[in-house]
Amino acid sequence: MKNKKYWISGAILIIIICLTMYTLLKDFKVSDIVNTILSVNPIYIILCIVMVFLYLWFEGLGLKVVLKTIGTKISGKKGFVYANVDLYFSLITPSSTGGQPVMAYYMNRDSIPIPQSTIAILFNTMTFKVVLMVLSAGVLIFMPDVVLGNGVLVTVLFFVGFGMQILMSALCFMSMFSQTVVRKISVSFITFLGKIRILKKPQKTLESLEKSLGDYAQCAEFLKNSLSMIPKVFVVNFIQRVCLFTVGYFVYRSFGQNALNYFEVVGIQTAIAMSANFLPIPGAAGITEAVFALLYSSIYPNEQLLVSALLLTRIFDYYFSLVLSGAVTLANHVKLTKKAKKEGCIK
């Protein structure tokens, strides 16, 4: 069933990518776009690749810091592998929901206890979301025109995305520290959906709820006893986010553009991420390109350069990331399978 879900997500993703590419390229000669991209400064291309690797490295470092605090040590290399697993399955599933469960599975195969992997993944993911909200708040304070001056669509998507992030973060914190309230509301809602036949197996959903609340309770207990670790993980996640947003700046500079400074471009990339973050589309494909085009339309001097920059940015922050993380995930899976065969106990 899970494999079927991934195949469906993959098919939807391919359809969206094809439609997006057609929309972007229908008014241009593909050869012109390719030549424009090939004319960029190669130094900035190398820097883009470095930023993608650093993005993954810092996610692994965040997991390493949390696990070390719990009492489980992993190498930087292993953290990098887990980050790639998370990224790959997040990029091919709606709302990036597929990464964490698969990452927990591979951690378990490496003999990391499920309670510890759950805490590490849960806290690192929550911090990652909080960092996006902090960066987005900075955009609203210091660069409000990015959100308010580029059309109704951008404004609506940004604030809906921001609102959803606040709501989800509040729900996470309530699940840790106000479980009685969350349990009462959730049970009533699930029971109601079961009665009107929208939810076919309410009992199974209630069991999943209890398991999730148990995970959040463990995370809450961990946080109470590890307050000094919180700012470390926040800084690591902050750097991780900024690394990926920096790809947009290096792409911008690679085309010889310099009207905007580093912080302005990172602010724009933050607004794009927040605007596309909440939509249940694998890899936020389609909507990311649409918001990018709207925010950069007055920045790049012509449409051909705009489309070229858009495609090059997406090549690194999505397609290259997808191929890289997929390759690392596959290599790790093959390695674990061979190891299991040698031990005579394929998992």
What tags apply to this protein structure?
single chain; 347 residues; mainly alpha; 14 helices; 81% helix; globular
Structure description:
The longest helix is centred in the C-terminal third of the chain and has 41 residues, at 303-343. This protein has a domain at 2-12 and 41-145 and 233-343. The model has no long low-confidence stretch (mean pLDDT 87). The chain is mainly α. The protein has helices at residues 2-25, 30-38, 42-70, 76-91, 99-109, 114-142, 144-148, 152-177, 179-195, 202-224, 230-254, 262-277, 287-296, 303-343. The chain is built from 14 helices and no strands. Helix 3 packs across helix 4 (76-91) and helix 3 runs antiparallel to helix 11. It is 81% helix and 0% strand.
Give the arrangement of secondary structure elements.
Layout: H1 2-25, H2 30-38, H3 42-70, H4 76-91, H5 99-109, H6 114-142, H7 144-148, H8 152-177, H9 179-195, H10 202-224, H11 230-254, H12 262-277, H13 287-296, H14 303-343
Helix pairs in contact: 2-14, 3-4, 3-6, 3-11, 4-5, 4-14, 5-6, 6-8, 6-10, 6-11, 6-12, 8-9, 8-10, 8-12, 9-10, 11-12, 11-14, 12-13, 13-14
Structural class: mainly alpha
Q: Mind summarizing the main beta sheet?
A: none
* Strand fraction: under 5%
Whole-angstrom Rg: 21 Å
One letter per element, helices H and strands E, the order comes to HHHHHHHHHHHHHH
Number of strands: 0
The 3D shape can be described as globular
List low-confidence stretches: none
Our count of helices gives 14
Overall average pLDDT: 87
> End-to-end distance, in Å?
18 Å
